[in-house]
Amino acid sequence: MAVMTDAARAAPEGDARGSAEAKPETPAWKRAAAGLAVAAALGGGVHDASAGVLTRDEFGSRTYDEIVGSGLANTCPNVKDRLTDKVLKGSIPLAENLKYKVKEFCMEPTEFAVSQEVQAKKEGGLVTVEVPGKVMTRKTYVLTGMEGSIFPAADGQLVFKEDDEGINYAPTTVQLPGGERVPFLFTTKQLEAKSTGQKGVVAVGDIFAGKFSVPSYRTGLFLDPKGRGGTTGYDQAVALPGMQANGAGVREEIAKETDKVYQTLPGSLQLSVNEVNQAEGEIGGTFIHRQPSDTDMGSKEPKEIILRGNWIATIDQEP
């Protein structure tokens, strides 16, 4: 299970409903934060989005006024037993003669990073590292409502193929420690992920890994500040034609800014199954998501975005 170790980094470190009592050496600000978390959990007040204390039934029982402005709309439910409120570690067998759908697929990123090359201090040369970033987008970056089919492949392993998009795109921006902001379109469009677990069974410890498509961050109707676009606007901005005679390097640079292109690039996703509620048909766990950033319609080289977080879905038999 060495593969799951990386994905497990996105799992929450604790439950915000824990005791507010603190040891004598605990700083005062930590004791205050613990007390607020307990009050929120017991009193139904402000919800800590990272606590993850709501199931689907609990989400459904909340009114609009209880959800608006609380951040709950930007979270995914949890896979928990409705009676004991404990995470279940089970499995869901899938019969060969029946068809199944994956519904209410939800992905909530909790860690954001950008892959960059930096100068190595000791060995010298460039090394690729993950630079943690701070999300600058408002709480609208959770993907939810996606659906798809789950079926055995030729070798018998299960395949999850996304069919219905749902809310499957979220323009998001992360800021790096140096202040650079990197926009990207968070998505899993046309996802097809294959399981590494037992044949015909979805169980704790399984990993669904596969590829998906990342559409352009901007559409063909977008116009840059100089009025250039893919399908509308100017072919060239004023004064640029005269600069084209200044050498091949200049012409290539101008071409990148002038010739706007709509790009669809590949991404990869790894879903680790850590929780299973057989009675409700729910599965969930953590994910590692890798995709390219915005290219400004072909004028910039994309950066690799790495997201980690939690996911949940429901497996249901088709009628």
Report on this model:
The chain has 319 residues and is mostly beta strands. The chain has a single domain (2-16, 52-219, 262-317), classed as Photosystem II, cytochrome c-550 precursor (Porin). 15% of the residues lie in helices and 37% in strands. The protein has an eight-stranded antiparallel beta barrel. Strands 4-7-8 form a three-stranded antiparallel beta sheet, with no helix packed on it. The longest helix is centred in the first third of the chain and has 16 residues, at 28-43. The model is unreliable at 1-52 (pLDDT under 50).
- Predict the CATH topology: Porin
Provide the number of structural domains.
1
Main beta sheet: 8 strands, antiparallel, barrel
Strand order of the largest sheet: 2-5-6-9-11-12-13-14
- CATH homologous superfamily - what is it? Photosystem II, cytochrome c-550 precursor
Taking all residues together, what is the mean pLDDT?
79
**What global shape is seen?**
globular
CATH second-level architecture: Beta Barrel
Number of helices: 6
Task: Describe, in short, the structure shown.
This protein is mostly beta strands and 319 residues long. 15% of the residues lie in helices and 37% in strands.
Attribute tags:
319 residues; Porin; eight-stranded antiparallel barrel; three-stranded antiparallel sheet; 6 helices; 14 strands
What is the topological layout?
Elements: H1 2-7, H2 28-43, H3 56-61, H4 64-67, E1 91-93, E2 100-119, E3 126-132, E4 134-135, E5 143-152, E6 158-164, E7 169-175, E8 181-187, E9 189-195, E10 201-203, E11 207-214, H5 240-243, H6 248-258, E12 265-277, E13 282-292, E14 304-317
Antiparallel strand pairs: 1-10, 2-3, 2-5, 2-14, 4-7, 5-6, 6-9, 7-8, 9-11, 11-12, 12-13, 13-14
